[in-house]
Each structure stands twice: as structure tokens, then as C-alpha cells.
Task: inverse folding
């Protein structure tokens, strides 16, 4: 089992464990702290990350900024990839294709679903991510390309 998954499973048993895990992730990769994410679910093949709509992540239209959604999508895809690849593997995001579908006017939830991906092989993996608002409306989609190398 990957280190991040062990840590997540151990911490989520504690009060405020998800918040603590999310804080640790942002300490390791500081740019993610700009959106104050919460990692709500993490398991091989799946991750859910949420973000509150607050002034710091909005644009001049008072909607969540496109790059904040990209940041959240990359975090969800990266965490899901990390706990899905074999233990001694390495991975890095190498590309992202996005579609802005609706105005993001509320808190958001990003889900990365990698159940259809073969994580046991080397190469580029396309990770789909959907971002929905609190009403369940799909506001953003991303396909993040991860370069996976098995050791």
C-alpha cells in the first residue's frame, strides 16, 4: 500500500483527520494550499476533493476562477493516481485538457475516477475529473495525463 493511502486511512479515524491530512498534503505541495482543499475520500481508483467558494478563489464575475478549478482537478487526479499505482512506481502530470461547462457559483467538489485505468503498466494514463457545484451541476471537466513509470 502506498504511503499516502496508509496515512489517509490512519488519520481519517481521528477527529478532524481529513482536515489534518489535507493540511499535510498542502505542506508537501504548497501551491494546492491556495484553494484550501479538503480531501474527502481517497482510495485506489477514486478521489474526491472539495473547495469552498470564497473571495480568494473568485474572479471579477464572482464565480470560482478557472485556474482554481484546474488546481483542484490536478489535486484530485494526483492523489488518486498516487494511491492507485504500484508501490514502487513514479508518476507525474504531463498534460491537462479542460472544459468549462457552467458558471461555478457555489462550493465545489472534484472527483477523479480511475477505475477503468490499467495502473499496472508503464505509460501515459488519461485521468478523468469532474467538478460539480452544490446542486450537482457539472461545471468543469478535465482530462489529466499522468506519465507513470514502474520500478
Result:
Amino acid at each position: 500500500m502506498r504511503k499516502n493511502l496508509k496515512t489517509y486511512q490512519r488519520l481519517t479515524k481521528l477527529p478532524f483527520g481529513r482536515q489534518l491530512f489535507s493540511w499535510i498534503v498542502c505542506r508537501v505541495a504548497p501551491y494546492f494550499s491556495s484553494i484550501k482543499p479538503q480531501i474527502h475520500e481517497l482510495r485506489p481508483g477514486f478521489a474526491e476533493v472539495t473547495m469552498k467558494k470564497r473571495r480568494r478563489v473568485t474572479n471579477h464575475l464572482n464565480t470560482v476562477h478557472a485556474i482554481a478549478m484546474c488546481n483542484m482537478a490536478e489535486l484530485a487526479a494526483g492523489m488518486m493516481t498516487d494511491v492507485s499505482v504500484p508501490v514502487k512506481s513514479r508518476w507525474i502530470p504531463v498534460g491537462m485538457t479542460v472544459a468549462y461547462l457552467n458558471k461555478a457559483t457555489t462550493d465545489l467538489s472534484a472527483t477523479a475516477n480511475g477505475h477503468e485505468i490499467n495502473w499496472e503498466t508503464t505509460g501515459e494514463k488519461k485521468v478523468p475529473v469532474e467538478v460539480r457545484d452544490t446542486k450537482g451541476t457539472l461545471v468543469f471537466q478535465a482530462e489529466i495525463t499522468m506519465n507513470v513509470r514502474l520500478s
